[in-house]
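User: C-alpha cells for this one?
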Amino acid sequence: MSGKPWTSEDRETLRRLYPDTPTKEIAHVLGRSVSSVYGMADIAGFNKSAAYLASPAACRMRKERGEHPGKATQFKPGQVAFNKGLRRPKGWAPGRMKETQFGKGEMPHNWHPVGHERLTKEGYLQRKIADTGNTVSDYVEVHRLLWEEHYGPIPDGHALVFKDKDRTNIVLDNLELITRRELMLRNSSQRWGKEVFEVIQLRGALNRKLRSLGEKQNIGPAQPSL
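Assistant:
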C-alpha cells in the first residue's frame, strides 16, 4: 500500500464507492494506486456487490451471455490449422514482414548496454548489471549495490531503507538495514497515523505483560487479552 496515510474521509469514500465502482476509478478519485485501494479494502473488509461482479465492468465474460471476445475464432473439436504441414521457402516474408525483421546482430530500439541506469515508477534508481534479456534480473537498485559493495549481501528477512525517505539520496549514510518486521511496523505507523499506532503497540505490550504475570503465578493469563 501507499505510504500516504488514509484519513477517515478517505476510508468513508472507499466504503461508499467500493461495492459498485471500478477500482481504477476509485483510485483516481482518492489519488492513490489501484493496489493501495485493493489493500485498504481488504483490511477494512469491503467487498464488491453481487450486481457489480455480474456486470461487464468486472471483466467476467460469461459464456451464457455470449460475451467471450474470441468465441467466433476459437478452434472447434477436430478442426485442423489451415497451415498445418505447409512449408515456406527460405527467406519467405510476405508484405512488409522483411522490413520489420531484426537482422543478424541487430538490437531492438529499447535495448541498453550493461551499466545503463533507469528510474522505476516507484522512484528507485536501477542499474543494468547483466544482459540476459530478463529485465527483472538484469537491473538492480543502485542503493542496494552501494550497500553490498561495503557490507556484503543483504541477509534474508531484512530490508534496506532510506533514512530520510528520499529514494534519490543514494549515499551510504542515508541507508539503513532493518528487519522485515520493523519495516512492517513502520509502514503500519504511516498507514494508521502515529497516535493510533502507539495505542496498538501499548496494547500489545500490556497483553504480553499480563501473560507473563499469569505464567509466573501459574494461573494462566491474568485476564483476557485486550
